[in-house]
Specification:
The complex is a heterodimer of chains A (173) and B (593). With 173 residues, chain A is an alpha+beta fold. Chain A is 42% helix and 10% strand. Chain A has 7 helices and 4 strands; from the N terminus they run H-H-H-H-E-H-H-E-E-E-H. Chain B starts with 12 loop residues before the first strand and ends in a 10-residue tail after the last helix. The chains are: A alpha+beta (173), B alpha/beta (593).
């Protein structure tokens, strides 16, 4: 069943979004000059700055560009790259594509869930990790695959997981 | 998706063949247009060409207009007729087995993800998908699969959004974004999980929706409909303690007949009054009486603002959708609208004060029902500042369509009815009030009165042709004594936006402005009978409205003796302290989202 409730922009958290982030985004938009057709590029930049695209950021962009907020949200909700939920400092992506799956990635993600104490698409309490299940990332020969941010870990086994987590918990910041 | 057609005069003429008929057509037109020229019907669903208001929806998303191109063109393709331009020597077949099957399958696929509830659907017998299923001979739905399961959005007092009935034609989006420039509706999400809705999937009531209802007017299914209030009216009518008063807006009488298979543009004022009386309303009155009061107030306010160097231009404030538009989109201009309540709200106020006192009825027991061509009026009647005093408000608003449905429910053979007159005193109205239903009509009515008041001389000709016309954005100068009144008129909110930008940026100077949210005026309102893409119907309604004015002896609001009596006995001076207290309101800035 389709759940439109799942498609919504996160409410802003307790603390307001940093003013300097908005300043940086505004400067980026001004420096562009002509913003015709630039919405996706601006959203990319905004997600780089804020880490995600909460409602206030989308409204900010809509008003700066003089376009409807519904149009901005339409684009944000269309592309899976954009996220309206805050992400951890690091994103652990476990490939659940066919090749990885038959070589045990379902077990890998279960162990990650236990160790990080979160479900898929959630963020750890310390804000360090987001765990994601993703579909084929195109390196089936190396399955099962885990990606942390942009780094690929090939042929991952359960005993590697502590090391991966440790790398990004201590020196990886 | 807004593509005004260019004149075809200078275009190259090319030969094509449709179903073995050789014809010549201008290059660049679509297969659909070419087929229509020789009387071949190709079914369509998402396609909508409202040339008069410059709206063309060409999403080609439904695939209901598939036709086959034959091999001679090095192609043997199924193509959508609505967006495929003809080319030289193109051979088109609309009647091959393959084309017929493709069209039927498109509808079957839509139906496989559409609720099977035609019996109880508010669009039953008005639904374009339902009509297509019949036309294309769909007898079974061959595929059972996952279906959309969205909650119905009933957050607003005006519009119900039922995304499960959406077929993703995007007509509403084109209307909302391109024509009305409100930008409320957009495609959200992707694939099977996509739907049409406001930003952040917020409820309609939290959006900046003006409730103009033009999306409802073009929705082919029941994904967008009005909130139905007919049961409330029946309950009031059946409550012996209630004195139920009904008022009908000027645009109703020019369109109601269409719901009973009468020719578009037939004036049914007398039959409508008879029907309402047979439905047992205690009094059948005319919103036009309220419109005459509005003219008294607005003309006085205009002259006051001109003579005292107050903010100009003054914008007429009859249209609740445009009031909401300015509150959300142009809060810096909130000092320009006239503070007048709209005619039906003025009427409600007078019904529960003056009329109640005169007839010794407890206002608590009076129920005021407004029949409006408009969906926004439903939300307007619920605005807190207009309902804080219940002795002062309109209780229920129904649309022309809802009234039609009630007349049918009551078993009244509308077309056979004799004619009768509105009740007295609030049934008397001028021709000036009648034209409130057309774009340019409110300002013309105000000018008729303001002219005579300023010059002290009677008008030779009460009809101001320079204020009339089909263009959505018009400008006129009216000579009044030694002054020249500069008038601006917009219908359709996209045109209103242009007009308001001119004013905001100081590019044009006006003394008075009229805005109606619906392209063409209230006759084309969101609550009127569905025009199903035929704007000729709207033009005929406009003619009927001007005819209603012509039929009247009384053409000017300030000569309505019942209105004058109301001021003498009760209100005092127009725009005076008591009149302002009862008949005027205020506007507030609202978030744009």
């Amino acid at each position: 069943m389709t759940k439109p409730q799942a498609i919504k922009a996160a409410e802003d958290r307790d603390q307001p979004l940093p003013e300097e982030y908005f300043d940086e985004l505004e400067k980026f938009i001004i420096d562009m000059g002509d913003t015709q057709g630039a919405l996706i590029e601006i959203l990319h930049k905004a997600q780089c700055i804020f880490g995600y695209l909460p409602r206030d950021v989308q409204l900010f962009i809509a008003r700066k560009l003089g376009i409807p907020a519904a149009e901005v949200f339409g684009v944000v909700s269309f592309y899976s790259y954009f996220t309206t939920e805050p992400r951890g400092r690091h994103t652990i992506s476990v490939c659940m594509g066919t090749a990885c799956f038959v070589r045990g990635s379902d077990q890998i993600i279960e162990r990650f869930k236990e160790k990080l104490n979160i479900e898929s698409n959630q963020i750890t309490e310390d804000g360090n990790f987001t765990l994601k299940d993703v579909r084929c990332i195109g390196a089936c020969g190396l399955s099962p695959i885990v990606m942390v941010d942009n780094k690929v870990y090939p042929r991952v086994e359960e005993e590697n997981l502590d090391n991966i987590i440790k790398t990004y918990s201590s020196e990886g910041l | 998706m807004l593509e005004p057609k260019e004149a075809d005069d200078h275009k190259e003429i090319i030969p094509i063949k449709i179903n073995d008929q050789n014809i010549t057509v201008p290059v660049g037109i679509t297969i659909l247009e070419a087929a229509h020229q020789i009387g071949i019907r190709i079914p369509t669903l998402c396609h909508l060409d409202l040339h008069d208001i410059k709206m063309v929806n060409k999403t080609s998303s439904c695939r209901v207009c598939m036709v086959e191109l034959s091999k001679g063109n090095n192609r043997n393709d199924l193509v959508p007729a609505c967006v495929t331009p003809v080319t030289r020597d193109m051979e088109i077949r609309t009647d091959t087995l393959r084309a017929i099957r493709a069209r039927r399958m498109a509808v079957e696929l839509l139906l496989s993800n559409h609720p099977n509830e035609c019996f109880t659907c508010p669009k039953n017998l008005e639904c374009e998908l339902q009509a297509l299923a019949a036309e294309l001979g769909v007898r079974q739905i061959r595929w059972e699969g996952e279906r959309m399961d969205y909650p119905k959005d009933v957050s607003s007092d005006a519009i119900v959004k039922d995304a499960n009935k959406c077929i993703y034609c995007r007509r509403c989006e084109t209307m909302c974004n391109e024509v009305q420039t409100c930008g409320i509706l957009s495609g959200i999400g992707r694939g099977f999980d996509s739907f049409v809705g406001p930003a952040f999937n917020i409820p309609m009531a939290e959006s900046s929706c003006t409730y103009c209802g033009q999306c409802v007017q073009v929705c082919p299914t029941a994904a967008l409909t009005e909130v139905n209030h007919t049961d409330k009216v029946w309950e009031a009518l059946n409550d012996p303690d209630k004195h139920v008063v009904v008022q009908t807006a000027p645009a109703i009488r020019a369109a109601l007949g269409e719901l009973f298979n009468m020719e578009a543009g037939t004036l049914v004022t007398g039959k409508m009054v008879t029907a309402l009386k047979r439905m047992d309303f205690d009094a059948v009155f005319d919103t036009n009486f309220g419109a005459d009061i509005t003219v008294m107030e607005e003309a006085t306010e205009l002259i006051y603002r001109m003579n005292n160097e107050k903010r100009l231009p003054m914008l007429t404030s009859c249209c609740p959708a445009w009031v909401k538009f300015i509150e959300h989109q142009f809060p810096e201009l909130l000092d320009v609208p006239s503070t007048c309540k709209s005619p039906h709200i003025m009427f409600g106020t007078i019904a529960k004060t003056y009329y109640a006192e005169k007839n010794e009825i407890d206002p608590d027991n009076i129920v005021v029902v407004s029949v409006m061509p408009c969906i926004a009026k439903k939300a307007e009647a619920k605005r807190p500042e207009l309902t804080k005093d219940e002795h002062n408000n309109v209780d229920i608003v129904i649309t022309t369509r809802e009234l039609g449905a009630m007349i049918k429910e009551a078993g009244i053979e509308f077309a056979e009815l004799p004619e009768s007159d509105f009740d007295s005193p609030m049934g008397m109205a001028s021709g000036a009030a009648a034209i409130f239903g057309n774009t340019g009509g409110v300002i013309e009515a105000v000018i008729r009165t303001a002219c005579e008041w300023i010059t002290g001389d009677p008008l030779d000709n009460v009809e101001f042709d320079q204020l009339r016309g089909a263009n959505g954005l018009r400008k006129a100068a009216i000579k009044v004594g030694n002054k020249e009144l500069r008038i601006g008129i917009a219908s359709g909110l996209g045109n209103a936006r242009q007009l308001l930008e001119q004013i905001r940026d100081g590019k044009e100077d006006y003394d008075a402005i009229e805005i109606m949210a619906c392209p063409g005026g209230c006759v084309a309102g969101g609550g009127q009978p569905y025009h199903h893409g035929n704007y000729e119907i709207v033009r005929k309604r406009q003619e009927a409205i001007y005819q209603e004015d012509k039929n009247k002896q009384l053409r000017k609001a300030h000569e309505n003796i019942e209105v004058l009596k109301l001021y003498k006995e009760y209100l005092g001076e127009p725009y005076g302290e008591f009149a302002q207290d009862l008949l005027h309101t205020h506007f507030e800035e609202r978030e744009r989202i």
